[in-house]
Amino acid sequence: QAIFENDDFKCVICGKGRKDGVEIHADHIMPKDFGGKATFENGQTLCGPHNFMKKNFKQTETGKKMFIHLYKLAKSLGDERLLNFCTEILDVFEKNGINGHIVWIR
Questions:
Q1: Are 47 and 17 a contacting pair, CB within 8 Å?
Q2: Can you tell me the distance from the alpha carbon of 64 to that of 92, in angstroms, rounded to the nearest whole number?
Q3: Distances 35 to 19, 39, 54, 66, 99 between C-alpha atoms, Å
Q4: pLDDT tens for each residue of the chain, 106 residues long
Q5: What CA–CA distance (Å, rounded) separates 65 from 84?
Q6: Half-sphere exposure of 61 (CA within 13 A, CB side)
Q7: Alpha-helical segments (H) within 27-99
Q8: What is this structure's pTM?
Q9: Best CA proximity match to 3, nearest among 42, 55, 47
């Protein structure tokens, strides 16, 4: 309940929640399968679809994929500000060798 309250009963990814008719889940940020604990600090609210998409990916994998999709959208819209933001974030993934198996094509 505290996790739902902290996230205003909305998915931290898409912002949808019960008011939108969407089922919400208390999710482990670091999945239990990867050593995550059932603590408030390791919790977040996700809608059903986003929770099932994330399921057993590492949180960084989910994040990198999300920023790649956002990068592509920004590119198609010609939104330079958002494109630069996504580029900076994705450069941090690459600089730190995080999730190199997920390929980002500029």
A1: yes
A2: 10
A3: 32, 12, 16, 23, 18
A4: 999 999 999 998 889 999 999 999 999 887 787 788 999 998 999 999 888 877 656 667 778 888 898 899 899 999 999 999 999 999 999 999 988 888 899 9
A5: 16
A6: 11
A7: 48-54, 59-77, 80-95
A8: 0.59
A9: 42
Amino acid identity of residue 4, one-letter, is F
CB-based contact 78:41 (threshold 8 Å): no
Return phi, psi of residue 40, to 5°. -60, -45
CA 6 to CA 103: how far, in whole Å? Answer: 33
- Beta carbons of 40 and 54 less than 8 angstroms apart: no
φ and ψ at 26, to 5 degrees?
A: -85, 115
Q: How far apart are CA 14 and CA 17, in angstroms?
A: 9
